[in-house]
Amino acid sequence: MGVGDVSKRILLGRKLRSAQLGETLLPKRVALPVFASDALSSVAYAPDEVFIMLSLAGASAYIWSWKIALAVAVVMAAVIASYRQTVHAYPSGGGDYEVATVNLGRTAGTTVASALLVDYILTVAVSVSSASQYAASAIPAMRDHEALVGAFMVLLLMSMNLRGVRESGTFFAFPTYAFMIAVLGMCLYGFIEMATGTLPQVESADLLIEPSPSYDEPLTTAALMFLLARAFSSGCAALTGVEAVSNGVPAFKKPKSRNAATTLLLLAMIAITMMVSVIVLAKQMGLKYVDPHELDRLSYADGSPLPEDYDQHAVLAQIARAVFHDFSPGFYLVVTVTGVILVLAANTAFNGFPVLGSILARDGFAPRALGSRGDRLAYSNGIVFLAGAAIVLIWAFDAETTRLIQLYIVGVFISFNLSQLGMLRHWTRALETERNAARRRSIKRSRVINAVGLSLTAVVLVVILITKFLAGAWITLLAMAFFFVLMGSIKKHYDKVNAELAADDEDRVLPTRVHAIVLVSKVHKPTLRALAFAKASRPNVLEAIYIAADTESTQKLVEEWDRRDLGVPLKLLHSPYRELVRPVVEYATEIRKANPRGVVAVYIPEYVVGRWWEQLLHNQTALRLKGRLLFAPGVMVISVPYQLRSSEIALERERREDERVHPGDLRRGQVRRR
Q1: Least C-beta-crowded within 10 Å: which of 34, 97, 209, 585?
Q2: Are strands 298-299 and 514-519 parallel, antiparallel or unpaired?
């Protein structure tokens, strides 16, 4: 086994057969943490963004916080209800992309795909950046190194997902459920304290907020509406990750659609409860929270400024410290699982992005490598690409969540709108052919649900574009345009290649002449085998060629050739500059030009070795030559292998691998009982 194989085995585990794909499918209890961690983790930063936006007008604007939370909850409920219709209608895993492509056309589908690709990358970048900020707050040594910490977290997630969906899901299940229990338990305890009149204040309750210079005057109706719209659009970050369930339906156990719909329902109930509870509790506990870059707007009650090293803790952390003021383990549990869930939230994208990439590859809009499953039956290339793109973003924005959040949710709401519009057309078409009364009522109900979803998501998209465009949303739109153009170019390339490769009658015409060339470096066994193979193919012309770069070596080879009388003429190609590849390419090209309807067959003897380091010592010239000859029309390259004794090592290794009993072989009857 080579070094590369050993490394992959250690990092990823044993290879899985294609027949074991069913063993990697997820039950609902594992699918919920796998696909819902992104939406659930938004509790750690969406409320923060709502309060940051409202703080622009001072603490008095916090009175609108619970109303904004309810508005976001209504939109989330409508969107999830709409996606429950999608997973039933399109269970193949295409999600928004498939809905838009089938019902609205290829342009709409490509637009949705570009939006989702950007959003998945941003999901990883935002979640991991937020987690690195939490880690830096808890561990002083990590401060000013958040980007490096974030990059390491992404690499860790990548390696876990390369091991397969089932293994990564099982690994992530415990911390996700721990986060749900910790936050919901904290909120429940807080509401009990509020009901009994013992609800404490958070650490920032006694601070004052100086309004932003643009909001220091009494707000007009228009200014207030714009402020609330900004806060609402920031709160809608809680909706990201919902679409991942519709893209990941193939990963569910049967019945796939029903299990996916149930997972969506559980996601809605838990996410809405957590987000609304956190915002309500924060308001009731006197929270004061501003942009981390504008801490100078905070001051003590007597007007004195805060110290320069003042650390503003996240909303969730402040609530947990106050609620569990007499039970410190509860506080540490909430903070710890929040940091962990923010890292694991990126796992939603690591499951959705590769599946979408494989579908795009199948349709010709992405490189076909994205559609290939790896050793562990995961779409490995898509996972690696997502990790690389996320690391670039984290590094470019220095892992600052507040800067990255401005790029967020634009793409996902574009896909929401096109998906809901596509579902409306889907149900309308279904009504045209459906005659069963009960089924027609069901279709009409689904159409109403999608219509409500479209109306709400359209309003949210307009609000987001108005309030976030100059704040950074334009970067997201530019990235979407880049992916849109790139996918269109890839599609055109594949279509052009398919057209060129289409077989016709001309391809059945035999070449008029075959001119065979055998490359000679020495008169040894590999050369003699190549000569024998070339003779067996019965070409019209057969000759051996040798690159004469050294007079003494050339003379020795010519004498040996004449002495053996091999029956094949030897031609010397002089190379005064000691080049080995160029003379062969030029000679083969000239022969082809002399007979355009003929074929030049170049036979290259090659060594077959068994150890990885031996590959570095042999066949380098042959590899370069083959690379050049591939671009020569009418020139065929034939490798003639000669197995050295070390090749038996690789053969024995493959034999042992084939004979090894793999998990599930006995159950499938591939191993006889003894």
Answers
A1: 585
A2: unpaired
The token pair at 456 is 């709400």
How many independent structural domains does the chain possess?
Answer: 2
Are 65 and 204 part of one and the same domain? yes
For 52-107, write each residue's pLDDT tens digit.
888 888 888 899 999 999 998 988 888 888 888 888 888 776 678 888 888 999 99
Token pair listed for 105: 């056309």
Domain identity same for 542 and 443: no
pLDDT digit string, tens, across residues 483-526: 999 999 999 988 888 887 776 666 666 778 899 999 998 888 88
Buried b (16+ CB within 10 A) or exposed e, 76-95: bbbbbbbbbbbbebbbebbb
For the domain that residue 42 is a member of, what is the CATH number?
1.20.1740.10
Question: 291 is in which domain, residue-wise?
Answer: 23-305+312-496
- Mark whether 276 and 359 lie in a shared domain: yes
Burial class of 664 by CB neighbour count within 10 A (0 to 12, 13 to 18, 19+): middle
Residues 58 and 56: their CA atoms lie apart, in Å, by: 6
3-state DSSP assignment of residue 544: strand
- Residue of 244, 242, 288, 306 lying closest to 77 (CA atoms): 242
Give the pairing type, strands 541-548 and 208-209: unpaired
Could you give the CA distance from residue 443 to residue 430 in angstroms, rounded to a whole number? Answer: 8
* H/E segment holding residue 369: none
The sheet carrying 599-608 orders its strands as 570-574, 541-548, 514-519, 599-608, 635-643
Tens-place pLDDT, residues 364-419: 898 888 876 655 456 778 888 999 998 998 888 877 766 776 676 787 788 888 98
pTM for this entry? 0.68
Last residue of a domain, one of 442, 469, 496: 496
The enclosing domain of 538 has a CATH number of: 3.40.50.620
107: helix, strand or coil: helix
